Amino acid sequence: MDLAESVKNKAIRAAANAFIDRTVDSLANDPEGGIRRLVDKAGKLNSLGLYPPKYLDAIRNAAADPDNVYMRMAERWVREVDPEVLKQLLRSLGVEAGYFGTKTARRNREVLKCNIPWLILLDPTSACNLKCKGCWAAEYGYRQSLSIEEMRSVINQGRELGVHVYMYTGGEPLIRKKDIITLCREFRDCAFLSFTNATLIDDAFCAEMKDVGNLVLALSIEGSQKSNDSRRGEGAYEATRNAMLLLKKHRLFYGVSVCYTRENLESVTNDDFLDMLVSDGVKFGMYFNYMPVGAGADKELIPTPQQRKYMYYWLRRVRNAKSGKQLLVMDFQDDGEYVGGCIAGGRNYFHINSSGDMEPCVFIHYSDSNIRSKTILEALKSPLFMSYYKGQPFNDNHLRPCPMLENPDKLCEIIERTGAKSTELIEPEDVKSLTDKCRDFAAAWESVADEIWAENPHPDPHTSYYRDNHQV
Ligand code: SF4
Which CATH number fits domain 87-472: 3.30.1490.20, 3.40.50.2300, 3.40.50.150, 3.20.20.70? Predict the structure, then answer.
């Protein structure tokens, strides 16, 4: 970056942060009027080219509509979340990750000719104090951890590339909550999200979260008490509900992560469940299709094609601006059309396990690179990651995005050609055995997915946040 650009960036950062401070203060005093005033001012911000003008029109129309679910949701967020937390999240997520990070990652993609992610997932530890049925994390055992120096090095390397969002998976990441808070304090230009089983959230930790402001939690929950505890163990549901109320009391920003299976789908999508989340102060729901990864996985838990079809239409119903829920709901498997298909292999993200293996996806446990012997950039240029770069999208129908679940031949071919090794620590999993568990579903889903794809319009997303052109 030359001197002129650095001076310009400094000025943009100062102006954006001052705008955030003024706006949040004004919103906190008058949420409803404040949002309308903010939308009026938003046009000025667009001189930075942050988003296409049609998005601004849509936001203006929404703000003018008294029944718009998203406006009511925004007011609720302003009322429920501490203003200092909101400011810090907007700075690290909006200004640093959204604006500067996106710009740097885009430029690096052009120059370096490989995938450059926007976020990185990492497992601070494989340790977990629960043992959920079918959870891949449990298979990693209790011995592996990334040191805080290794986590710091990942973040430093990532920032150079343009990555300002880091998500902790595991294992139970909050076993390392002291280190997580330390890194939140050190890297004010980054936003952190931790998935968690919620059992280690207490008043003291909430106070630390509020103090740093750039840490968001996604609590695991799977529907009703019965359906949740049958997979996650007795007491898990109560622990999660108690933690939600604690987070709400401390005015923090948090969501849930939901793994949907053939058995729990009704329980995790019914209106009572969603209404309970909203009333417990939950702001977003990240839904994940059950993936049959690891020797202990049960392929009978993969949702059926009819259930996936139900999910597709359910998502659109709960996100409807007139009749939906005041909850941001997203689905890792059925929202591919908004991000151009598979986002793994560094296209938007990749995963580092607790042994330091860099894997294309949190569900794809194969690797040819480890942070203890390679840099992140070297991994992104490795044969495995370059296969993603060259192969994406793996299917033109983004309802069939995955090289494992929906296109199993693709993953077989990639792993066999690149020689990437299984990173399942307890019992290595041959790619053929893994993909064989997906073949029945892939074959049955193909015609259903193609039918849904053909009969529905598709968004024309502003995918310059993503590398959306096919590379050869
Ligand atoms: S590899 Fe599969 S599960 Fe992972 S991001 Fe790509 S489509 Fe999703």
Answer: 3.20.20.70
